[in-house]
Write a structure and sequence with these properties.
By secondary structure, the protein is of the alpha/beta class. It has one domain: Glycoside hydrolase/deacetylase (TIM Barrel), CATH 3.20.20. Helix content is 32%, strand content 19%. It contains 8 helices and 14 strands. Strands 2, 5, 6, 7, 10 and 14 form a 6-stranded parallel beta sheet that branches. The protein has a two-stranded antiparallel sheet with strand order 1-13. Strands 3-4 form a two-stranded parallel sheet. Helix 6 packs parallel to helix 7. The longest helix is centred in the last third of the chain and has 19 residues.
């Protein structure tokens, strides 16, 4: 027997469905991942110390990553629902001028994205801590941002010189003032504030994270070893420091972190 529903009956059924209480579903589980994050500083032939990797070693590492299926993404890509099969994050702290001749060409060759975390007070001058190193200028940062490969973060404005304490060496109000000064200058030069911060020397605590959030930072890079394991947890992102002594046998454990 064929049954037909009148328009009135249809509207009654629809109205009943709309006013029914919504069913409660369990929240989606945290998306698990094992994503290595590398921390570089200077890439140079001219300087040899614990903060410097030679261009030759850097080139070999980038070639190995690409040939083994790794694809370097940005911090913003962590919010994407689709990631490459073997994602990796590459970061550089301080903002050395050697980045353009020695690191950028390899990143461009392989289409690798990277993040540079800037010390505000030294932009376009020299970092005079331990040894004089020329630093990138605002014009160079604008050029790097225009490539679509390079993101720019904060390494504080004037707190990098606190070797033994980092941002923990100043009061909360001084930290906020420093980060807001960085954001003001960065916005004037780049058109928008940064949402990335890397803690100098790895020093931070709950209070400094709260202050950084107030200053507009969402992605907080630490110096803790290990892999990034929970997508969405952007407050304490671990990184593995790379040195010039990291031949393949030392480099692989920093990539294949479990």
């Amino acid at each position: 027997m064929k049954m037909e529903m009148t328009r009135r009956a249809f509207l009654q059924v629809t109205a009943t469905i709309l006013i029914m209480p919504k069913l409660s579903f369990a929240s989606e589980p945290v998306r698990k991942i094992s994503l290595p994050i590398l921390l570089y500083h200077d890439i140079s032939y001219e300087v040899t110390d614990d903060y410097t990797v030679s261009p030759r070693v850097f080139a070999l590492q980038m070639e190995w990553l690409y040939n083994n299926g790794y694809r370097a993404i940005s911090l913003a890509d962590l919010e994407s629902n689709t990631l490459p099969d073997r994602p990796i994050l590459i970061t550089f702290d301080d903002g050395y001028a050697s980045f353009i001749p020695y690191a950028l060409p390899f990143l461009q060759t392989y289409g690798f994205k990277a993040t540079i975390n800037i010390i505000g007070q030294y932009i376009g001058t020299y970092l005079t801590e331990r040894i004089n190193r020329p630093m990138l200028s605002w014009d160079e940062y604008r050029y790097l941002a225009s490539t679509g490969l390079i993101s720019l973060g904060c390494h504080t404005d004037r707190l990098h010189s606190y070797y033994n304490t980092g941002v923990l060496g100043v009061s909360g109000s001084s930290l906020l003032e420093d980060l807001e000064r960085f954001q003001d200058n960065f916005t004037k030069q780049m058109g928008a504030p940064s949402n990335i911060i890397a803690w100098p020397y790895g020093f931070y605590n709950e209070k400094s994270m709260t202050i950084a959030q107030k200053a507009g930072f969402r992605y907080m890079l630490t110096s803790k070893k290990g892999a990034y394991r929970e997508l969405g947890n952007t407050m304490e992102i671990p990184r593995n420091n790379v040195t010039n002594n990291d031949r393949l046998s030392e480099f692989l454990p920093k990539i294949e972190v479990k």
